[in-house]
Design goal:
- The chain is elongated and about 75 Å long.
- The longest helix is centred in the middle third of the chain and has 17 residues.
- It is α/β, with parallel strands linked by helices and 367 residues long.
- 41% of the residues lie in helices and 19% in strands.
- The strands form three sheets. It has an eight-stranded parallel β-sheet with strand order 8-7-6-5-4-3-10-9. It has a five-stranded mixed β-sheet with strand order 11-12-13-14-15.
- The protein binds iron/sulfur cluster.
Length: 367
Amino acid sequence: TPGTGQAPQVPVRRRTRKLKVGDVSVGGDAPISVQTMTTTKTADVDATLQQIAEVTAAGCDIIRVAVPTNDDAAALPAIAAKSPVPVIADIHFQPRYVFAALEAGCAAVRVNPGNIKRFDDRVGEIASAALAAGVPIRIGVNAGSLDKRLLAKHGGPTPAALVESALWEASLFEEHGFRDVKIAVKHHDPLTMVAANRLLAERCDYPLHLGVTEAGPAFQGSIKSATAFSILLGEGIGDTIRVSLSAPPVEQVKAGCQILSSLNLRPRKLEIVSCPGCGRLQVDLHKLTGQVEAAFDGFPHPLRIAVMGCVVNGPGEAKEADIGVSCGNGKGQIFHKGHVIKTVPESKIVEALLDEAQSLVETDVPR
Ligand code: SF4
C-alpha cells in the first residue's frame, strides 16, 4: 500500500471457469482483461485494424467488432488474421454470421439470444460449431433487450430478471454439453448492475464480463463504471471489463486500465500524484499537471510522478513518488524519492522531469 511500506492489497478473486479467448485467458486466476468495441464499419478492414492498433497500444486485451451485415462478416477473416489482440464477433440477429465468425478464426462470439429469431432451434448447431472451433461464447442481457416474458414476470429489468435470463441462455448451451460461456448482465444503473452480478456470481461459476451499459459521456460514464466495477472487483467478482462511454474506444480502454490499476489488479504505469491546490499556490497547478500528463503519455516504464503546488508539503508528502516537483515563486524544486536535487525555472519544469525520468530508468528500475 503506498506510503505504508506494505505490499499492495489486492482483492481476492472469486474462482471461475477459465476460458481461452484466443491467447488471452479469461476467468480462473487469469488477470482481469480490458476490452472495448471498435466504432469503425467492420467492413472497412483498414480503418478497423487501425483502431484496433490504437486501442491495443492503450492497453486493450480483447477487441469486439460488430457484425450487422454480410460485408462485415466477409471482413472478419482479414481482421482476425491481422489483429494483434483476439477478436470477438458481436452478432445480434443472424445465426449465419456466428458460423461465418467461427470460420473466419474469431477468438469468440457474442450472441444475444433475445434478438435472434428461433435461437433455441439453432443453439445445438452453434454449440457444436463453437466446440469444434474451440471458441467460447459470450451471452447475457442488457436491461434494454430483456425478454418480454421476464419483464412481465419480474415487473421490469430487475437483477433477478437479468440473472434468470442469463442463466436460461446458459442452460440452452448446457443442454448441448457446451460450457465455454462468459456471461454479462448489464444495466445503466450501477447498483442494479452490481446486484445482478452478485446474484449471478452466487448461482454459477461462469466468468463474468462487467459493464455498465449506456453509461454516458466520458466523465459520467467513467465514474458510473468505476463505481460499479470497484464494488464488484473489490468482492472478487468480474473476469473481464468493458467501460462503455460515448467517447472513442481508446478512452474506454484507458478508463478500464485505470480502474484495474487503482485496485492493484493491473500493474501501474504512469501515476501522477498531484495536490488539489489551495490558497498557497503560486503556479497554475492544473495546467502544469495537464502538461506533465501529456508529456509522459506513453512513457514506457512504470513511474510515479508528484506535482505539488508548493514547497510546504511538497517533497515530504510525495516521498513515495519516484520523481516530482514542488512549485513556488516562478521555480520548481525537482526531487527524487523525497530529496531535492535541483531547482529550475517554472518554464523548464516539464523538461526537467522528463530528463530526470530518463536518467532514472537508465540507472534504476522505478518501483
Ligand atoms: Fe496547497 Fe501546497 Fe498542499 Fe498543494 S501541496 S494543496 S499548494 S499546501
